[in-house]
Amino acid sequence: MSEALLTGTGIETFYGKIQALRGIDFEVHKGEIATLIGSNGAGKSTLMMTIFGTPRARAGKIMFDGQDITALPTHQIARMGIAQSPEGRRIFPRMTVLENLQMGATVNDMKFFDEDVANVYRLFPILEQRSGQRAGTLSGGEQQMLAIGRALMARPKLLLLDEPSLGLAPIIVRSIFAAIKELNETRGLTVFLVEQNAFHALKLAHRAYVMVNGKITMSGTGKELLARPEVRAAYLEGGH
């Protein structure tokens, strides 16, 4: 049994007086893909951002690789080996593809830059063709690939992916999920994935959680949750 790389216990997060997360417990083990599914507004992105230190958990504890990161600032969390590809991609639109990748590499002082860029281009060949192009002129799918590539440039132990399939055509969604699977299988990268596309996410996941109104209501393997009628009814009907 692999050991837990990331755990959250009793996490409570607020926006002002509004409570967004209500006593969340979760774990992500080394070398696995864990996924969190739920409808829009359930609190999934808030959990991702809380792990990364903005906003801070008001109660509970987040442990990463044996260390308590609950109160650490975001830049320190990044240096410990967590990288995030946020919802909405948030690339630098005026910078080129290559410059965006350089921004991702600043966490490790550019030591492995050439090797890491080559790996990103191997994973997403279209980015190599677009390397000198401004990121804002890329298609939505290419921007998503760039956001993931930029996160990978930090050589993370844990990759947080927030809604990587949002707004993308089905053929692009399939290639993004294939890339996530390849990163996990060939590089052993641990991935924590937040997704509204429950079918793809659960098919991929070793461990899965369902979030409703800021609470985890169900957990199990991806296969187990895919098979549960209440999950199918809520998240999968017509949703392939």
Secondary structure elements and pairings:
Layout: E1 4-15, E2 18-29, E3 33-37, H1 44-51, E4 59-64, E5 67-68, H2 74-79, E6 82-85, H3 97-105, H4 113-123, H5 125-129, H6 140-152, E7 158-162, H7 170-187, E8 190-195, H8 198-204, E9 207-212, E10 215-220, H9 222-227, H10 229-236
Helix pairs in contact: 3-6
Number of helices: 10
Kindly report the spatial arrangement of strands forming the biggest sheet: 6-7-8-3-9-10
Distance between the amino and carboxyl termini = 32 Å
CATH superfamily: P-loop containing nucleotide triphosphate hydrolases
Structural class: alpha/beta
Radius of gyration: 17 Å
The CATH C-level class name: Alpha Beta
- Unreliably modeled segments: none
Number of strands: 10
Short summary:
By secondary structure, the chain is an alpha/beta fold. The protein has 10 helices and 10 strands. The two termini are 32 Å apart.
Explain what you see.
The model has no long low-confidence stretch (mean pLDDT 93). This protein is globular. It has 240 residues and is α/β, with parallel strands linked by helices. The chain contains ten helices and ten strands.
What are the defining features of this structure?
240 residues, alpha/beta, six-stranded mixed beta sheet, four-stranded antiparallel beta sheet, 10 helices
